[in-house]
Write a structure and sequence with these properties.
The protein is α+β, with helices and mostly antiparallel strands and 333 residues long. The chain has a single domain, classed as Hypothetical protein af1432 (Orthogonal Bundle), CATH 1.10.3210.10. It contains 13 helices and six strands. The two termini are 23 Å apart.
Length: 333
């Protein structure tokens, strides 16, 4: 039986990933996986320290720079690693969530072509917005019941607490601090928002990203939502249409972002490894056949082919697949 053009195993060459033509092959993918796992651990360590002196801020800035560097090297790998972590892991939730938000924010501000100062401010805010409830957020990801009244109060107060901690650590960038303060409510009561000020605009974007990534994230009480449900809740208004920010996020991330599980019309199940030319046509590494059998060597499918189109997105619990990230990402060529 002959293979169609879009049916090729991991060993077959495919186009170089967006933004990193020089980093091809399974070996490079394994290095990328290790790099993301390393920065996830080092950032969690940096964020958890409570000795807010100069060294703390230096460590944080180094982590932020590394996240930005890895995202620039290969945005699809960045999204894949962050989404897979969000769907499968609740350890150090607060740090992982902040990194996920920072990656998405980086991609959005690059698309908007915002000034460097604004790009740095929104990424730094994404990484530090939940400092004021770091331990609480980590424990709530593990707890089996709803938030208590005391926990709800701490959640309400955490933006101001985060700003207080950042100031004690020596942060004096007003746009960073204001974006953190506003990340739950971008517009203060009675405040003009026509046009949006830079802090309002950055906080509005961060709020939307925060909702989107939180929906995708696993909790002890529930699996992460599918990508389509997260997009519906974060990107669409009450009429079911995306506003300007939502439309931009969908354009940048796609309907099925890298790292999300999908079922194809062929019955195969796979994981998205690269965004496609259109929001609904990602490149997928299939790891399970339509009859349920495991595919030992991931097969790359171009879902712009109607015979391989995405039927629907799946949660991690629905997919029930344990992935070797280096091997899956190596399938891209």
């Amino acid at each position: 039986m002959s293979m169609s053009q879009d049916d090729h195993p991991a060993s077959t060459a495919s186009p170089a990933p967006i933004g990193s033509a020089e980093r091809s092959g399974a070996g490079a993918r394994a290095v990328a996986v290790d790099s993301w796992q390393a920065i996830k651990k080092s950032f969690a360590f940096a964020l958890a320290a409570n000795d807010y002196e100069t060294a703390w801020l230096d460590r944080l800035r180094k982590s932020a720079s590394r996240v930005r560097e890895l995202t620039k090297q290969d945005a699809d790998v960045a999204l894949y690693m962050m989404l897979q972590s969000a769907m499968n892991d609740t350890e150090n939730y607060s740090a992982s969530h902040g990194m996920f938000c920072a990656v998405v924010a980086d991609l959005c501000v690059a698309y908007f072509e915002w000034p460097d100062a604004e790009a740095a401010a929104v990424q730094n805010a994404a990484l530090t917005m939940n400092m004021g409830m770091l331990l609480l957020q980590n424990s709530m990801a593990q707890q089996t019941g709803p938030p208590s009244s005391a926990q709800k109060l701490r959640i309400e107060e955490h933006p101001a607490k985060s700003v207080e901690l950042l100031k004690s650590a020596g942060v004096d960038e007003a746009l960073w601090l204001e974006t953190v303060r506003r990340h739950h409510r971008p517009i203060d009561e009675g405040e003009s928002c026509d046009p949006l000020t830079p802090p309002q605009r950055l906080a509005q974007l961060l709020q939307r990203i925060d909702v989107f990534t939180a929906k995708l994230s696993k909790r002890k009480t529930r699996p992460g939502a599918t990508a389509t449900i997260a997009a519906r809740d974060a990107c669409l208004d009450t009429s079911g249409l995306p506003d300007a920010t939502g439309a931009t996020m969908l354009r940048i991330l796609g309907l099925y972002p890298p790292g999300s599980f999908v079922r194809l019309v062929s019955g195969e199940i796979g994981v998205v490894v690269r965004r496609g030319e259109k929001a609904h046509t990602p490149i997928v590494a299939c790891v399970r056949r339509g009859d349920g059998a495991t595919i030992s060597q991931p097969m790359v499918r171009d879902t712009s082919n109607r015979l391989r189109a995405v039927q629907r997105s799946l949660s991690a619990d629905e997919a029930k697949i344990r992935l070797d990230h280096g091997r899956v990402l190596g399938a891209r060529g």
